[in-house]
Amino acid sequence: MKPLRLVLAAVCAASALWPVSAALAQAFPARSVKIVVPFPPGGGADTLARIMVPHLARTWGQPVVVENKPGASGHIGADMVAQSPADGYTLLMASTAALSEKNVRNFAPVTLVSASAYVIVANPKVKAGTVKELIAEAKADPGRLSFGSSGTGAASHLSAELFAAMAGIKLLHVPYKGTGQAVTDLLAGQIDLMFAPAQTAMPHVQAGKLKALAVTSARRAATLPNLPTAAESGLPGYEALGWFGLLAPAATPGAVVEKVSADANAVLALPEVKERLLALGSEPSGNKPGEFAVFIRDDQAKWAKLMGALGIKPE
Fold first, then answer.
1. pTM of the predicted model, to two decimals?
2. How far are the Cα atoms of 99, 133, 159, 185 from residue 26, in angstroms, in the given order?
3. What are the structural domain ranges in the chain?
4. What is the pLDDT of residues 140-179, one digit of tens each?
């Protein structure tokens, strides 16, 4: 009977706290809110956060600021948020790299902002114009072609490693502190390739400064219908998605998390926000905290298997 008494006690305690949590949510926010982007300016997480900020500020009637805190593949910024007061006033715009088995329990999932195909982009000096040609070029000179990422363990890293493993080729990985820095070197020809978020890469493709070879999704992206998938253009069975989402410190009251989630989802559903994201090749998502938690669990399981097989250790 003891375990049952403990469960009942926990339920009663939670019930007692719920009115307090609901009151906090009702008053939220009473001051400015900070969204920490754990990467430098110019990357996918930063772009999405800055698109959402003015609309969240209007919804809440309070300033919303973005603070870039790069380093260690997103873990420095993530740790800062995890250690912040659990009141909803400090949020994290996370991506694959910012979470690991060690720190995921330190956060309360809020909402999935976007889960979209990455784009395989190349500097114009790369001869290949298709995935099939890229694989052939890499096989002809193993290890010569380099790709940049936003850090070890990031989706931009792991999607390329999965591609290389499935294609039986060797690519040279060059990690950066964020996608924006990697794109800068890609434009300058310091690296050859990137598996990059569409919202970061496509403006440069449209300007003629980079060439897009394919998208990494199983099916063609609705936002980029003219780009073939890697699977259909030379690597059958290949699929990888990059995601971005809002998280709060783990102990944030449930009612506050639910309110932030609902308000963020309302922003993502605004026609002007959807239009801007789609124009950048990013598909807006939006879901409930519990659904986002399941998404994160499944995503981590997929990449943990690959990292274990290849001996990749997150920073």
1. 0.81
2. 30, 57, 41, 46
3. 33-115+242-310, 117-239
4. 999 999 999 988 988 899 999 999 999 999 999 999 988 8
The predicted structure's pLDDT at residue 189: 97
Fold that domain 117-239 belongs to in CATH: D-Maltodextrin-Binding Protein; domain 2 (3.40.190)
Tens of pLDDT, residues 64-76: 999 999 988 899 9
For the beta carbon of residue 197, count every other beta carbon within 10 angstroms: 30
Separation CA 266–CA 129 (nearest Å): 40
* CATH 3.20.20.70 correct for 33-115+242-310: no
Report which DSSP code applies to 284: B
Tokens of 101: 């088995």
pLDDT digits (tens, 9 = 90+) for 206-241: 999 999 999 999 999 888 889 999 999 999 999 998
Per-residue burial over 204-227, b if 16 or more Cβ lie within 10 Å, else e, is bbeeeebebbbbbbeebbebbeeb
Q: Which secondary-structure segment (H or E) carries 193?
A: strand 193-197
Q: What is the CA radius of gyration of the chain?
A: 20
Own/partner contacts of 275-279, CB < 8 Å, gap of 24 or more, are 276/51, 277/48, 277/51, 277/114, 277/199, 278/222, 278/223
Tell me if 95 sits within 8 A of 244, measured CB to CB: yes
Q: What is the DSSP letter of 96?
A: G
DSSP state string for 108-159: EEEEEEEEEEEEEEE-TTS---SHHHHHHHHHHSTTTSEEEESSTTSHHHHH
How many CA atoms are closer than 13 Å to the CA of 283, on its beta-carbon side? 15
d(CA 156, CA 162): 10
Tell me what pLDDT residue 15 has: 55
CA angle 9, 10, 12 (to 5 degrees): 65
Instruction: Tally DSSP H helices, then E strands, for the chain.
Output: 10, 9
Rounded CA separation 107/150 (Å): 21
DSSP state of 312: -
